[in-house]
Fold these 3 entries.
Entry 1:
Amino acid sequence: MNNMEDFNLDKILASENEGGEAEFFPIISNEDQTSLDNFNFPDLLPILPLRNMVLFPGVVMPINVGRDKSMHLIKEAYKNDKIIGTVAQIDPNIEEPKKEDLNRHGVVASIMKILEMPDNSTTVIIQGKKHFAVKEFLSEEPYFTAYVTGQNEQMPNEDQSEEFEALVGSIKDLSMKVIKLSPNIPSEAVFAIKNIDNPFFLINFICSNSELKVGAKQSLLEEPNVFERSIKLLELLSKEIQMLELKDDIQKKVKSELDTQQREFLLNQQIKTIQNELGGNPADKEIHELKEKAKNKKWGKEVAKMFEKETDKLHRLNPATGEYSVQMNYLETLLDLPWNEFSKDRFDMKLATKVLDRDHFGLEKVKDRILEHLAVLKLKGDLKSPILCLYGPPGVGKTSLGKSVAEALGRKYVRMSLGGLHDEAEIRGHRKTYIGAMPGRIIQNMKKAGSANPVFILDEIDKVTKNMHSDPESALLEVLDPEQNNAFHDNYLDIDFDLSKVMFIATANTVGAISPPLRDRMEMIDVSGYIVEEKIEIAKRHLIPKQLKNHGVKLTAVKFPKKTIEKIVVGYTRESGVRELDKRFAQASRRIAKRIAFDEEFDIEIKPEHLEELLGKTIYNKELYDGNEFAGVVTGLAWTAVGGDILYIETSLSQGKGKLTITGNLGDVMKESIVIALEILKSRAAKFGLSTEVFDKWNVHVHVPEGAIPKDGPSAGITMTTSLASAFTQRKVKSSVAMTGEITLRGKVLPVGGIREKILAAKRANLKEIILSEQNQKDIENIKPEYVKGLKFHYVKTIDEVLEIALLKQKVENAIDIK
């Protein structure tokens, strides 16, 4: 028994003895509280775990025993002194609890009777004696045993007697109100409460047998002060009554609503009869129209069977009910979907190339991959569509490329933005049983496309968010897996839909934000951004004509020479894409339109010197080579999110104790590169005519200018080594030379990334020679010849080769005497 719903004086606390006569047990101990407080019991007790119940001192309680451990414990104890310890489980759902699953407070109990019930179960009647605390569990087999210590109950003092009496009266009244409101508690429980005179036993009886949760009962047991226990019990009973009254109100309202629905149902049946008499039912006409549409669908047998079943269900429903409209929406969704309806692919390779080149300059890798797919499709006739992921900085044309691909292939185009998506149901939909349920956005977009093989853009796939309740990324795994998406399961449709012919193109800014399983299912294509030369072409072909047209300016009314466009790209924008550049041409077009509208005279050809009038002062300064007059200053090459750039590594020496200072907002990897560079120089000191003591006499300060900009990465390793070597030897660095490469402690030069961007930055800065790792030669060969024309490349394996090329024999003016 765990609460009052099990309480029944006749059935539980009475049994037949061996002579066939009824044997009755009291529901409360006949002893007084003093006897219970003075009750003696051994320090080591067998412990019986209780599920869904808590025994209190003085309370008699029947329990059903089912576990083998518990049966063994009861029989052993019954043969001996009949004394056991009872402790409530923390989680009642655990079938075989360990000592960690048991509370540390319980009640010593005496076994009064073991009853074998007619259904072969065993019921044991026990009586609570004294509250105890577990000091230590001794064993778990064959049953739990523990060392325990008794806990005395603290009765109210004289000052609290009147208040305590009022508390007990309130608890008794609330308990009887609970019995009246609760349908689960028999009315006999009222007599039990009325007939318990001892307030201590009354409180314990209500605590043990009320409908409170086990955790709440356990907290009441662990409260040794009876007065405080009474206050807590009163609060819990008050909450229980509020819940029961709320349930009662809801049940009354539901009954009233059901009566209204029954009345409406009868009226609707009468309307239906009248409509049939007048010559037809609108609902039947709707169902007939649905079946006529279904005849033209190309779906498989399974879908056709499902449609028939759901249509028959609709026919049986009352049109006035909410379920009818839900069922109608479901059938209309099935009909609107493009089951095996495909748009015909256009296999004109030249036209596809022309469309892709017309809309996007550059992006050669992506274009080649699309054309490869089209070529295989043309030869083979059937091919699972690739799942591409274009990743790169904003504004490089990843999303707009999808439209061009759709046009080149002759397919329908749909786009789904995943930015901020945090609910799995957005992908898979809700089950149609929910009110307001709808398919997921994948199926909705397929319905919108009207074709089973569209080009489907999954925009901003790296912005999908997940939380503890939902994981949309996991739902996308099925969509983007070519082995699974031929049977995509939407919760609303509740039937598989084939997505294998869909060409999915995902876009992302940051690859690291995409989960590895999802990344593994996609073909990753780097769209790293445009170089200055490519931006100039994009401006000439796309941006300038578009903005002039948007602002009502004729194409012949103004001209932007290449030098002017280059100055806008370099001086007014700093980005990987062309969005900011587009805004600058829009600004220039507005100023030109204003001048035309006011009949002002202006040069048709916009020269670089005119840009200040149109766009204001130059925002960004182009980094140019400074020369080689200073020792310790070396030009390096850097990759940034907006393209390549040059950076200077500066080293200065001052007399001191060999302290190394690093400034310039550098990351950990870059700082480590400086330490490695210094160690390499120390190991080669003799080669440069330096004594090892010189490094202990001079403080070294390495600085990278533009300290507000964070910098990191290993690619400046050889630049730092050259800078330190130049500073300690006071030798000049070769003029117009730049370098990039990672360095190891052995002096080996390793390859680095971003070579294309770095080389073009060097060319813009008027540098003539580039030193880089031998393993980066393949990257240079992939760059268009016109971009590397006029540059000389030195491919090196070790730092010794770098220093041989970069350092001149000549010393700088006013050289420091390093000794």
Entry 2:
Amino acid sequence: MKYNFKKIEKKWQDFWQKYKVFQADFNPSRKKYYCLEMFPYPSGRIHMGHVRNYTIGDVIARYKCMCGFNVLHPMGFDAFGQPAENAAIKNKTHPGIWTNKCIEWMKKELMRMGFSYDWQREISTCKDDYYKWNQWIFLKMFEKGLAYKKASSVNWCPSCETTLANEEVVQGGCWRCNTAVVQKELEQWFLKITQYSEELLVDLKELTQWPPRVIAMQENWIGRSYGVEIYFRLEPNGKIISVFTTRVDTIFGATYIVLAPEHPLVKEIIKNKPQEKQVLAFIEKVSKETKVVRTSEDVKKEGMFTGAYAINPVNQEKIPIWVADYVLMEYGTGAIMAVPTHDQRDFLFAKEHNLAMRIVIQNKESSLELSKMDQAYEGDGIQVNSGQFDGISNTEAKEKIAAWMEEKQIGRKVTHWRLRDWLISRQKYWGTPIPIIYCDKCGILAMPYDELPVKLPKKAEFTGEGGSPLSKVKSFVQVKCHKCKGRARRDTDTMATFIDSSWYFLRFCSPKFKDAPFDKQEVKYWMPVDQYIGGIEHAILHLLYSRFFTKFLRDLGMLSFNEPFQKLLTQGMVLKEGEVMSKSKGNIVDPDEIIKKYGADTLRLFILFAAPPEAELDWNERGMEGAWRFLTRVWRMVIEVKNCKNTTSAGMDSLTKKMHQTIKKVSSDMEGGFKFNTAISSIMELVNEIYQAKERNLGAKEIKEAIETTVKLLAAFTPHISEEMWLVLGHKDSIFKSGWPSYNEEFAKEKTIDLVIQVNSRNRSRIEIPVGISEEEIHKLVLNDERTKQWIKDSPVKKFIIVPNKLVNILI
């Protein structure tokens, strides 16, 4: 009986769908497990990154199902977004038509992989029964003062012709198309995520099962800083210029102030000064630079003297005010004090522009001399040139100077955050319409809840030019004010697509619920997500926004938990010959072609065995062939035992011990960090042991039990062939209803180990030795081994190397 993967895989995919094997039902009497992979943007084809991500999730979901959990494992599509609109323009079609075709194709490919999704829960964020609730949540935020509109200098992608949140600017470019981002002044909608800054930071401590790297990335992005806000005064009118610093111990060394080009004070202080024209030209130049470039340590910093001066409040010194590209309005107050001797960036800038320097912290180890300094001294030391604070350590001075400044009312202790409010306005069609109208009489008004959803008009002109297509659809824009019944106009921006993914995990709990975004009782049962899986690239954007939405909905009384995802696994990338797969490099491996050649199970096995989930995986055709050979070997083993008529029992044997040890090892690998590669390796060892047992003519009862166990252990990794082998072995129901195998702790104990014996670094023999014996006893057992004696003969042993629990290497 030949292993026909095409026939077998189709058969079991149909079976799972027909009998709803993986349908999740609300049942509070059962212990739940919510496994979720980050849902995909429907580009039309799945790539190897998708396959790896979803295979990892599928193994976890199937394993938990066999362990008796009520498993929720849904799938949907993050369907709004710029790429669909661009594709519609290119192909002269509607984004909705394009997106639905892509979803249809992608869903077909996901089903071909045999993933255990509960497809009755499928959601698509571009459908109005989903984005209606985006609008509902927006209005709740508007009511609470968390959604607001303001004029702001925003990130602008000239290619996409739309705004970007700070988090969507990656190394100075648009996260979608890599086009260099510029600054533009626009009126935009923001969500006040900063109201949750403290909680978003503090609650990271709850996420003990998230990768430390992701925690660190979020901590850095939220960016809490403790410092002092110092009140410099503009000379001669005394107007306050607030400067934030974390190094108040260096205040006596401040020799100039630097303002961000966007600082509202700049145009005021340069007015009618000789420098006015040059400074305005400089501001215009900087406006075209990205914030990443402006703050990069590798880029030379540029600036200009404004012609104005300020008074340092601690010593009444008159110091120049500069404007420079490296100071951003987003952080602190948009103004910094420059202390060149104790800040490297200020040091380089001062050297470039021949600005004054003063040492105020003396190095205790090696005395600093201004004339000999070739870099800033940023370490600790003793205060000098600091008035009454001379002679104390700078760490002590920080607190004393801050307290003194508060007493003199020339400064105050403050906490500053790097996190900024979330810009959500997009000047595009294919997104959630913002449910706001503008009435000349009544002002800015929220749409009534009973008029949601505000639907996208089906007919709109797509050219890719001239701003939002919605602004050109009169029937959409022109409306009646629901308050005064006069003329009004709709907001023509749409929401950032990260809104859609900030709460979709909640919708999966009750996707057909019509009275609210989700059924509170079902969410209480299923949430939080037990295991979330996705790429590290979402560490800040999606994960931070999802945490924010969860906390807001909790504060509305809709949720009873603080964090949406208990465990997070960030899978590594799939490479080919050490490089990321991409069309431009011509190194794409098409999953569809691989499935046609080897089948979905072989592809799954290779992906899971080739590398741990978090590590990068380098594509290897030979690895695919190896996975194929192993599955055909297991298939052959099952067929042979099926045809065997012998039912004798040989009693307790090394095979039985190996079987229990393997169950224990695989169970441990599954529970202790999803070590799929080592789990599969253990199953392969068990298969080898079964073949050896057959050679020893062990009783068929023990062999069959070991084979059935092997098939069960393989089921989560290679579900189609495992279902078929389970059927061949005489079982009628799905293997996923059979339960995870249990082990006998006594049998599973490692009482002996196999010790490989090498002679001159080449394997020559293998012996079984008791666990925990001394090196002297190992030495004696090895030298008494007959095969080892033949290789050593009368040669003197130069070295006897023991690698504990693994091998011995005898050098002669």
Entry 3:
Amino acid sequence: MTIAHVLGFPRIGAQRELKFAVESFWRGDIAEAELTAVGSTLRRRHWQWQKDAGLDLVTTGDFAWYDQMLNTAALLGALPARFGFDARALSLKQYFELARGNAAQPALEMTKWFDTNYHYLVPELDAETRFDGGVDWFFYELEEARSLGHNVKPALIGPLTFLYLAKSKAAGFEKLGLAARIVPAYRRILEKLAAQGVEWVQIDEPILALELDEQWRDAFAPVYRELANLGVKLLLGTYFDSVASHAQLLADLPVAGVHVDLVRAPEQLDALLDVWPQDKVLSAGVIDGRNIWAADLSAKVAQLETASAKLGNRLWVSASSSLLHSPVDLAQEDQLDAELKGWLAFARQKLDEVVVVQCALNEGRAAVAAQLAASDAVAQSRRTSGRIHNPAVGSRVAALTAADATRNSVYPQRAAAQRAWLKLPLLPTTTIGSFPQTQEIRAARAAFKRGELPEAQYVAAMQNEIKLVVARQEALGLDVPVHGEAERNDMVEYFGEQLAGFTFTRFGWVQSYGSRCVKPPVIFGDVSRPRAMTVEWSRYAQSLTARPMKGMLTGPVTILQWSFVRDDQPREQTCLQIALAIRDEVVDLEQAGIKVIQIDEPAFREGLPLKRAAWGRYLEWAGRAFRVSASGVVDTTQIHTHMCYSEFNDILAAIAAMDADVITIETSRSDMELLEAFGTFAYPNEIGPGVYDIHSPRVPPVNEMLRLIAKALEVVPAERLWINPDCGLKTRGWPETEAALGNMLAATREARAAISEGRKLVVEAAAGHAHAAGACGCH
């Protein structure tokens, strides 16, 4: 009998219960016992949904208070020594300090989980790292599920993926050298699971979808020989891309089964079937774990019929990846257009889709004829709906030429023209866009959206906030202010709400990192801009100051990457449609007197295919889309972009080809490491490396920021260096924001004075800061 299971389920809760409980705990509003009760309630609910849907195995180990990589480090006992925590006695307060930093230590680095919009905390490794065991939350949750009568499958991040995704700042340190220490730790975990009566353990090694070098690839066989025959059956989890190049390796590994992603890489199935042994399970991920479109279930059954005939009960059915990347429950969506809602499936509905495919394979299509007929009708509706295509949009994309993606003059000429009117001081200061969103701001937006606040009163409330934000920036002395984005709920959702071709859910939340959740727009049809989206807010803000106001937009690649995107045309086409809409807004801002315009692209690198061989094509069309959005203006208009979260070393040529006049990047957590690559590459335009981390409420002292400015000046000429925070300040409070910006301005003044006086900036390293590492959180 074909088994049905999933690799993981969203942990935030259908109503974001985990987010609100965690944030209440951080504020001190609830005790640890109240927080853990919320976690238990959510786990029990999600396990029951899996059981009720008919899954044969219920997954445990996928719950995390903040992040699964941090959970794994805590389970292994591999915590950074700089925090001084006892891993076996780790409290939730300490756990969150690892994630968010404390007064003495900056947080762990955060970066993208492969090519998703989820961010994981990067473990820190060095020659002294030990894996002697830590907290037992993993085992407690397993027993919690078993006590409820569930047939469980605990899920773990695998040892090689853990090592590969971790980071060491020690020069020349080989992370793989720690395999001899980490394998015994995994042996102890598996032996304990066997003693608890567990049959199957899911052990995820998604790095197999990457282009691994030989030493990492060759490590799999010896590592998994050490983990074999410990009393449990191992299901090796891979996802996000093809593992066909490792087909023979996977067939030979001493594991009981392997999971593969047949949504991202359906073509790999044949290669795997050619070599698959008679005694090994193949788990087929045919339901999309990363998008929200209802599956064409008849097509999914057909996709697996050959495999089913060959493998029989050794074929399992699942989602392509963990459902962490999907919203929780479509049933809550009581305001979605009925036709559009019929096209969608969230995590809970995907459980049902998995089971329908399983039943069709086990019992024949007739056993699920009604479900298949309903799915066929949905697929036909999407193919034929007149709501999807706008011929005018298609014609405009088809008419694009090279000139539409090229500025009028090269950067040096533009820079001279911009400096002539901007008249900014050396090391100009700015912020990345958003300022603190108070409860009052959120309440006003919500009341307006519900129709309880008249438009005139809403506009007045937002203008009052803009006036306050501009006045505070004037008082601080920021050279290029922003309007603060009080009117914006989210940097993508705000634009999607005003673009044709988008729709929105009420509860389509997914976890981005920690307690940060986003509600991606749904792109179902051709995209266009019916009217201006930001112009009046920016125009009003500019009227309040003589300083150049910076207009704030989200770029086409980021809007694409952070949306649930239609799957009936190439992503490139959708991205160019968005680019033209943003281009129209850029031109309108310029005509309204806004001559500094930031087009944020924090997700630019996120879109890279996992296989390097496919990078060139992506970078070509993504860069073109950005240039289309930015190239409709005159030379004197200064185009900024912002990037965060990622390593940039290997795509710097593509970033330079975007030809933004100024790029701001996250660098503070990495202690300016990321900037070094820009210096080595000789990045030709202006650059603003972030000098303090906005994720933490910690206010870095002047000396610490001055040290980072000094490091930046070693790489970037002063005349091309900007000073700014790492990212937007939306999630911070006003007291810490003003204090941190005040310190940033003080550090900038000291740096300017040193340059003016011809003296070198020499600053003592801040205690602990050398261990900091990088990530960002946009707008």
